[in-house]
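Morning!

As promised:
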Amino acid sequence: MSQGADDYITKPFDPDALRASVRQRLRRREREVAQAERRATDTGMLAAAALPREMESCLVHLERLSDALRESGGNQQSVQIGASVRTEVLRLRTLSRRLRLYGELPSLYARRFSDGDAAGAVCAARSAVETGRKIAAQWDRTADFAPICEAAAVAFPADALEVVVGELVDNACKFSPAGTPIRVEVRENRGFCNIVVADQGCGMAREQVRSIAAFQQFWSEAERPRGLGIGLVLTQALVRLHGGEIAIESEPGAGTRVSVMAPSE
Amino acid sequence: MQTIAAREEIELAKLPIAGIQDVLLARMVARQEAARLGFAPRALTQIATAVSEIGRNVVQHACASGQVIIADQTEGSRRGLKITVQDTGPGIADLDRALLAGSPGAGIPGSRKLMDEFAIRCGKGSGTTVTMVKWLSRE
């Protein structure tokens, strides 16, 4: 009872007055925690939006250096180092773009509630399989990659689809052991295109799946999903922004199955 | 003395909501019906977004089943699309908080902003009914 007027209580006090005072302090504490979390989220999103711009010039420089090494005509080791640096630069560039997109999500979402979803574009459904194949190759998992494509088109912009499938297959490769299948299935069903990415990896606990599904961190006081990375959150946001829906099924130790649904035209 | 025109409505579609794919279907049907009524492309997208947000709440937050009713509504000389989303879930514990822009998910205040009329009715344990209307612009 020593931190300001709102917790002042005259003595002698009765139990009701004491309860009211404790309730008031708890409410204040709740508000402070919520404000701190909101500030942390805002700072994180600002950093996510600003960092990639700073990184881009460094990446361009690194890429040139790696090209110079590869083409220097020097010994084999230099050429190999140049090639490895280039591969890492490309991965960093992809990460940087994802981070930037992640940082832009709050404004994209705000626009969604004035203009509506950004639905409208259509692309070839097979591009989902092509993206998946490319990512699996980057993880040296081509032999595990099991695609099925039975749909012609999906009402989704090509660049957004590439990010969505890329992130999902990347996660599948990252969280499942080599030698287990990574399925990418694209099917048409009653006017919808259903893209499924499934693995037999470590899976996620129900709470983790729920925190992604709640997708609260960009605008709420709720706790951010920690330790999950931005992949699934970004994927879900993009799917919804473009008028689709996403369902995540996962079981620890058994694997994860993510289903992205969008109109087929 | 001013007279208030009575509202009349014709049901255009009634769709069950049991899974996330039903939300997508409801969205698509609402969009089609809105297009048939003559809504502009921006309004079509706004209506579709509101149906997605509120429909998804049924599946994800209420963890219940429900239905979406789409109706052609008239009031005097104006005409609009009425969307009713009903579920059998536990209701919304803190309705005032759910209507705030910074509330979790923000789908409810977001949809409210997209539509011309928005109302929520819910009782503890008796489900939730969200009613939204978008009027055709007279321009």
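The longest helix of chain A spans residues 15-70.

Hope this helps with the figure draft.
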